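sanity check both lines:
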Amino acid sequence: MEFKKKKKSEFSAISINRITVRRYREFSQKISKSHTLTLDLMMDFFEEANISPKDKYLMDHMGFEHRLNKRFDYIEELLRRMEQEQLRPTHDKLKKLFEYAENDQKNRKENLEFEKRMFEHSMKKDKVTQYDNYILKENWGKQRIRILKLLNQVTLEKPRFGIAYFKLDIEQSDLESLKEVLRQEL
């Protein structure tokens, strides 16, 4: 409304640097239709907001804000670089590890199911199949190795007085684990 009253008034010329005039014209086209209206809007903004471009505290605040924004940009860049260089390889390694564990678990389940089917199949026929024979040989080989390791730990003790005896050199934890394995197999 105020602008209509001013529009009736006469125009006056102000000498302004050509570079500044070019910048002002580009800015003015973005803001409003006329240069006068743009200038009025700018002055109204500064007056209503009680802001002065020469205010030292305002300029210090804006400079501080600018420096702070630069620091935040630097920190953001640092975090992105750290994520790419350090966290991604770790993430990929963990992902591969979990995928391997899942695949290993699936393979174990498949092997267990296969063994169960073969066992059920052999029980139906009342005969020993080639698979049963293979499993028995494999288990017998494992048991034989376990017994040989245990026998290697047996030594003959000959005391000065009394009867000779055999001594088993084995740690208590190993003995407990051997007992546990034998209990599980029964």
